[in-house]
Structures are given as C-alpha cells and as structure tokens.
Amino acid sequence: MLRVLEYALGFIDLFFLLYLMVYATYLLCSIVVGAWKLYYSNKMRQIKNEIRHEFYFPVSILVPAYNEEVTIVDSIESLLKLDYKLYEIVIVDDGSKDHTAQVLVEHFQMSPVQRPIRKSLQCEKEKIIYAADHWKVPITLICKENGGKGDALNMGINASRYPYFLCIDADSMLQPDSLEKIIQPVMEEDHVVAVGGLVRSSQSLKMENGKRTGYRMPWNLITSMQILEYDRSFLAARILLDRFNGNMIISGAFGLFQKDVVIAAGGYDRNTLGEDMELVVRLHVFCRNNKIPYAIRYEPNAICWSQVPESLGDLRKQRRRWHLGLFQSMMKHRRMFLNPTYGWLGMVSYLYYLLYELLSPFVQLLGWVTMAASAVVGILNWDFMLYFYLMYTLYNAVLTITIFFQRIYTLRLKISVLDTIKAIIVCVLENIFFRLFLDAVRVTAFIGYQRKKNQWGRIRRIKQNGV
Question: What is the pairing mode between strands 192-201 and 139-144?
Fold first, then answer.
C-alpha cells in the first residue's frame, strides 16, 4: 500500500513540475512576443503619425455606474479632454444608493429631458434621463432601476447613437490619445468587431489637465503588487493571444465594440458576474457559428488608468467576482473545449484559461497537499524542492520586472531610483506572498456562490490628488 502511495505521489509531483515548466515557458514566449510587438507598433505609429487626418469613426462612450460619487466626476472630466472630435458620453446610473446622479447633474449642469429609448437589448426600466449639450460633446445620464452591470451596459447600448461604443468603468480615466489609439485597429484592419486596451493602476499616476506629469510606485504594498500583476497580464499574455485572434477577455474597464454585431449576438448577459469576458467569448462563438469574418484585437498603446483595490478585503471581493465570472463564462461555452470548429480559440485559448486561470489555484493547492503528504511518508527531496521553488520564484520575478521596465521605457515614463528599488522588492514579494493570497481567494470563491453570484461587489473608492 505504501509503495502504491509513493508511486501516486511521485506521479502527481511530476505533473506539478511539468505544469509549472509549461507555464514558465509560456510566460517567456509571451514576453518575447510582447516586446517585439511593442517595439514594432511604436515604430510604425511614429511613421503613421507624420500624416495627420481628419477622419474619425463616431464612438459612444458608455459609463456604467453604481455608487461611484467619489470618482465619477473625475472620470467624466477625463473623457471631455480626449483628442477626438466625434463621440458622445452616456452614463448609466444603475440604481445607485449614494449621490452619484446628483453630483453629475450639479457638476455638469444637466437638465431632465424626454427621450425615447429603443430597447434592442433587454434591460431594466429607466426612471429619469438628464442631458447636457453645452460641453465639448453631448453628455447623457440615464438613471434606471438596479439590474447589474451587464444590464446597465445594455441600457447604454440601447441609448447610444453611434455604430461603435466604448465601455469604461466609472472610476477609470483615459489619456487624451486613448480613444484615438483604441480605434486604430478598426481603421487598419477589416472586420474588427472588438478591441481591448491596456488597463493600468491610476494610483501610480500623476496627472494634471488630463496629461501625465509623473509616475510612482505607491507605498501601499497591495496596490504596488497589482501594478506589477496588471503589467504582466496585459503586456504578456494578451499580446501573444492576439497573434492568432485568441483573446477571450476584454477588460470591462476599457473595451471598444461594434454595436450592430453585439446586438445581433444578444448584448451583455445580465445574469453573470463576468459580463465582459462572456460577451467576448460569445462574439467569437457567434461569428464563427455564422461564418462571419471577424477579428478581436488588443491594442497595448491605448491606455486606461483605473483605480485598484487598496485593501485585502476589497481585493478579495474583486477577485472573487472575477473568478466566478470566469467560471460562468467557461461553463456556458464549454463546447469550445478542444473543438476544432473554433480553431486556435478552442484548441489553445480555452485550454489556457481552463488550466492556468480557472483551475490554477486548485492545481497549486494539490501541489501543496502532495508536498505535505510526500514529507509525511518520507519521500520528499527537501533540497530539490527548495531549490526548485526558489529558482521558479526568481524566474517569475525576473520576467515580471522585465515587463514592468519594458512598459516604463515604451511609455517614456520617468521613475525615481527609490521607486525602482521599491518595484524590485515588491516584485519578489508579489511572487512569494501575493499569489498565495489570490490562490486562496479563488479556491474559496464558490462559498456562497448562489447567494452572491449577481452582485456588483462594492469596492471602496478614494479621491486621488493630482487627477
């Protein structure tokens, strides 16, 4: 019996070792492809920017909001400073219990209007509509009954006037060139139905009048760790998956979509926590099933600055929502798994998100349990285990810090010596402690799933200086 147990533990140890090595190789490939893409795209954009044009795709910017009175005005102010001529702003207050609507109406001097909304997509009923036409672009505020983020976005789509819409979170800020850059894949390539942009932590940014004036690493370790994590996620994996039209996620904080295709596909799912991912996956499925030529792109030069959680409690709520949303999306579209009908999307992308996103915390937990069991029966090689763990941690830390400084360089950001030292220290801590915390959150995410599966997940917002 002991011999059988030893063989079983040895097999699990081998699987765990291969699992980590495949992921490490994937990260390395992602960084190489990402670095080449950033260098090449920046070089080409410098050439293209020599020729200025006056042609613009009209875009509706949708801002779903729920209890966002602290940050909503700054977010809309940043949208009014965009270097773009043809767009509108549509804010949807999804039954907020604070003064979100009131601060908007007072700050932007909005007035009630009578405006019929054609309900192409299902959503809860509107209560009152405000509008302001005396700003750079029209601003519309729709106050509606609470229905969730997906429901609020469907209302925004119904009320939008233009053929493309851009979704951003109510705590996010765009740079003056963000809209111009995220629309460029649509201008450069036929059949682009969606484009995702780069999301970065606004706590690391200093802005004045909508322009960057500085960059820093916050003293808050939780925030700093997320800065590194966001860079690794957006600048590595998504660039690689973009090479074969395999991105399954466009962040709800910053994504551009072709409206008629989204409506034809059914709009946002109102009964899922991951409405952003679910819509993107459904667009893939809809276009492939109907043999519609399409492309879903990722544009790393289009940047959105979004506020990240600053406490472990808020971070836990956010990541619980993300993981449950991932689970819901993958289960709903499980027919894609290793299905050649969906090409690289089903054979590679779905497999990656299944093994290294959805199941990753459970695999990690299995590894720890197996290690403990191996130690109990006396077959654990402590020297090899410690050496491998340290080398793997160092390897990931080096890749992460490489991505971080790569983006500092390509964005031409200035960072102090102190912030450089902080970034290196935080990078090591992030790989040792932060990931363990996130794995624990994701493993326990399904506790109370039925009771909380459709909640927004309230996260405390703060007023930031220099914005």
Answer: unpaired
Q: Could you identify the residue written with the tokens 């946002």?
A: 268
Q: What are phi and psi of 137, to 5 degrees?
A: -135, 160
Contact (CB, 8 A) for 23 and 395: no
Q: Cβ neighbours of residue 165 under 8 Å, at least 6 residues apart?
A: 59, 60, 61, 62, 156, 157, 256, 257, 259, 262
The residue with greater pLDDT, 457 or 374, is 374
CA distance 364 to 356: 10
C-alpha distances in angstroms, 48 versus 13, 128, 177, 186? 52, 44, 14, 15
The answer to whether 88 touches 179, Cβ cutoff 8 Å, is no
pLDDT per residue over 334-364, tens digit each?
999 999 989 899 999 999 999 999 999 998 8
Which among 226, 183, 191 is positioned nearest to 83, based on CA atoms? 183
Q: Quick check: 205 pLDDT over 90?
A: no
Task: Report the run of H or E that residue 347 belongs to, with start and end.
Answer: none
| Token digits of residue 187 | 């201008």
Q: What is the pLDDT of residue 260?
A: 97
CA distance 61 to 75: 12
CA geometry: angle at 70 spanning 203 and 319, to 5°? 55
| Residue 419 near residue 216, CB atoms below 8 Å | yes
The CA distance from 431 to 418, in Å, is 20
Q: Would you give the distance in Å from CA 29 to the centre of its chain?
A: 21
SS3 216: coil
Q: Which residues contact 306 (CB under 8 A, 6 or more apart)?
A: 169, 171, 172, 173, 199, 200, 201, 202, 253, 254
CB 431, CB 59: distance < 8 Å: no
* Residues 6+ positions from 359 with CB-CB distance below 8 Å: none
Dig out the tokens for 186 from the structure: 């649509």
